Structures are given as C-alpha cells and as structure tokens.
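Sample pair:
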Amino acid sequence: MDLDKFFQKSSLIPAIVQEASTGEVLMLAYMNKESLSKTLETGTTWFYSRSRQCLWNKGATSGHWQKVLSITGDCDDDTLLIQVVQTGNACHTGSHSCFFNTIWEDKQS
C-alpha cells in the first residue's frame, strides 16, 4: 500500500480513534508515515507526539492497548479513522474517552 498519498499536504495527519463496538470517539492523535507503518505492522496504534517529537505506542506505558480492527482514510486522504478494541481507558486522565468536557449541548432536542 502506498502511504505517501496520506502525507501529501502535511507530514502529520489527524487520526480519530473510535471504539469499534460502540462507535464512541476515544481520542484524536497525530500520525506520521512511520507511525502509520508501525500501526499496520503491529496491529496496535502508534502515534507521533507533537510535544515530545517522537513516536509513541498507545498502551506501552499504561497497558491500555488499542487493537486495530480497521483504518479508513477520509475523502481527501488527509485524516484517518481508526476503529479499535480498547483495553482499559484511552485517555491519559483515566477517562475511557478523551472527550468528556461538554462545551455546549442542545437541551431542546
């Protein structure tokens, strides 16, 4: 597979991680070509840390692994959707999902 098409616009692309069984969005991280390659090779998620400027394997420290079931590119080939089986919590705060801070909600629907 030619991975270069995903990195035409930028060396880093967003990767949305979703729990396969529920559809819950767990986290957003960034991937470069190397982390995407390692993800495909190992079947677990690898990302690129923008703050530390290095690769990291989700679960290597915490034990909260993400087993990859599928990876889908968006229509512009510049964002990935990764469906996983999540072991433990996805968020470094201890929450299952990183998306728990409600900013606004339509209470009339």
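Strands lie at 13-19, 25-31, 46-49, 54-57, 66-73, 80-86.
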